[in-house]
Amino acid sequence: MARLSYVEKERATPEQEKILSQLTQKSGKIANIWKLWSHSPLTLDAFMPYYKTLMKGSLDGKLRELAYIKTSLLNDCAYCAVAHKGVGRKIGLTDQQLAEISNYASSASFSLVEKLVLKYAEELTQTARTSDSLVQELKKHLSEEQLVELNLTVGTANLTNRFNMSFMTDPD
């Protein structure tokens, strides 16, 4: 059970209702993370354009989702891992890849660049640093723009992981 109340549209302030209406899915559902975060509509309103832009950036979607999922698994954030596995499946990650993320280094399910991205997410999440050798290897496959987006993806995953873990966000 979440540590904070979920802001439901029926009980929302005008500011909360405005941001929640922008986040309502076609199904009419609003993700629990946004219901919690909307306690601070100003920060959620500022975060969403950034998040949407990052999710549509130049970094290949599969690489982005692998990084987000790996980060979420390392942080033991089931909420984010489940959500991003769903996104990952929609953009082409296989069930085998999703099952083998923890053993990516020895798995034949991942390309070289996918393994490098997973290692980057692992290093950055565990130490807040990445090795020079790893960055140099990634530069052979990704542009500097894509590297920035990879870094921001891992950082954003760490942010949302900590948000959800701290407030014990219930699965959607």
Topology summary:
Blueprint: H1 14-23, H2 32-37, H3 41-55, H4 61-74, H5 78-90, H6 95-99, H7 112-127, H8 132-139, H9 144-167
Structure description:
The protein has helices spanning 14-23, 32-37, 41-55, 61-74, 78-90, 95-99, 112-127, 132-139, 144-167. With 172 residues, it is mainly α. Helix 4 (61-74) runs parallel beside helix 7. The protein is elongated and about 50 Å long.
Q: How does the major sheet shape up?
A: none
The coarse silhouette is: elongated
Beta fraction: under 5%
The assembly state of the depicted protein chains is single chain
User: Helical element count?
Assistant: 9
Query: Measured on Cα atoms, how large is the radius of gyration?
Result: 17 Å
Poorly predicted runs: none
**Mean pLDDT, nearest integer?**
97
Give the N-terminus to C-terminus distance in angstroms: 12 Å
What is the structural class? mainly alpha
Residue share in helix: 55-70%
Order of helices and strands: HHHHHHHHH
Summary keywords:
single chain, 9 helices, 172 residues, mainly alpha
Summed up, what is this model?
With 172 residues, this protein is mainly alpha-helical. 65% of the residues lie in helices and 0% in strands.
